[in-house]
Amino acid sequence: MSREEVDLAVAKGLKFLRVKQLSDGGFECLFSQSENCANDALEEFNEGDKKSSVVVETHSIFPATLIGHSLFFLKENQEAKNILDRIADFLVSNRNPYGIWRHYTPAHQYEHFIPNDLDNSSMASLLLKNLGVTTPDNRSLFLSNRSPDGHFYTWITLRLQWNSNPNYWKSLWREFRHPIGQYFFWKIMPCAKNDIDAVVNSNVLNYLGESKETEPVVDFIKKVIEQGKEETSDKWYGRPILVYYFFSKNMTSENSKLKALKPILRNKILANLKRDGSFFDSVLDTSLAIIALENLGYYDDIPTLSVRFLLDSQQTAGSWAKWTIYYGKPDRTASFGGEEITTGYALEALFRLKKDFFTNEKGSESQ
């Protein structure tokens, strides 16, 4: 394995993403609906009482946001910069008033019925901020969407709790315009207006930063890890590695109040290292594990074999295999993901490792 091999893999991956980026700057996403089973591999099958169908979503906002966060580490690369510029335009064009987003673009048939949410809004806001794009100040709107104990609600929606923020009320105009659609959304979907999800709160914390207002979120994250509630703390991110990855984004600073959790997350991740260098169940999981260890400051614990695994797993087109990155139901029978998202994370993992890998003893031994 050489520096040139990593560079070639990155170049091929970026070319794949450039070709796959949609005309509006977004990215496709696969949506799987299965019966009686999870379908993390996003494959269609019909095996007795276990069935799954997969459709291509072209009007989802979140995939572009996730890919953008990964490519931000490659922003000095002209190919990556071009993709990022188009993602930024895509997010700005689909931003709702007051700097918030929902899961679908206006072109999607269900866009009017799905409320704005803090997961999409925090992730998109942070990416645009990092890219230097001026956005409306939405901090007060975020802070007004909290429970009495200080946790952030997932949905920006009407609930039986007084809210004095005028932008909160103004943001509900579509909800008021489509009361029947809203009724059926909350009736049919496996979510509630008072949902409080751990990863969503973690993403909000990553955007707003640690402060007096976000202290309850810090405590929330600590309890999830210390009590081993990774798989039940969030309706949309039902695998432990997803929780570790998103939580780790809040632990990149040595001054973080969450730094005591770093060795705990490290041990949980390394406990899922396999003999071939992969982590957990997939290429996506392996990429997320590598990135999380980087975020936590444990670069030296990432095996050379894991880098080899990522390089050998790259497909001919320059992509990496699809796998679920988030779910549409807590029982994991509805899932989202795709080669584009996996490729974004694999590129981030390889690029960040490359900066250190070939300048120490471990790197020189591998060449």
Number of strands: 7
Distance N terminus to C terminus? 5 Å
Radius of gyration over alpha carbons? 20 Å
Report helical residue fraction. 40-55%
Coarse structural class: alpha+beta
Written description of the protein model:
This protein is of the alpha+beta class. The chain has a single domain, classed as Glycosyltransferase, CATH 1.50.10. Helices cover 47% and strands 8% of the residues. It is built from 16 helices and seven strands. Strands 2-3-1-7-6 form a five-stranded antiparallel sheet. Strands 4-5 form a two-stranded antiparallel ribbon. Strand 2 and strand 3 (50-57) form a beta hairpin. Helix 2 (62-71) packs antiparallel against helix 3, helix 9 (198-208) crosses helix 10 (215-226) and helix 12 (262-270) runs antiparallel to helix 13 (283-296). The relative contact order is 0.15. The model is unreliable at 363-367 (pLDDT under 50).
Map the helices and strands.
Layout: H1 3-20, E1 29-35, E2 45-47, E3 50-57, H2 62-71, H3 78-93, E4 116-117, H4 118-130, H5 139-143, E5 155-156, H6 166-170, H7 173-177, H8 179-188, H9 198-208, H10 215-226, H11 240-248, H12 262-270, H13 283-296, H14 304-313, E6 324-327, E7 334-337, H15 339-357, H16 361-366
Antiparallel strand pairs: 1-3, 1-7, 2-3, 4-5, 6-7
Helix pairs in contact: 1-3, 1-15, 2-3, 2-4, 2-15, 4-9, 9-10, 9-11, 11-13, 12-13, 13-14, 13-15
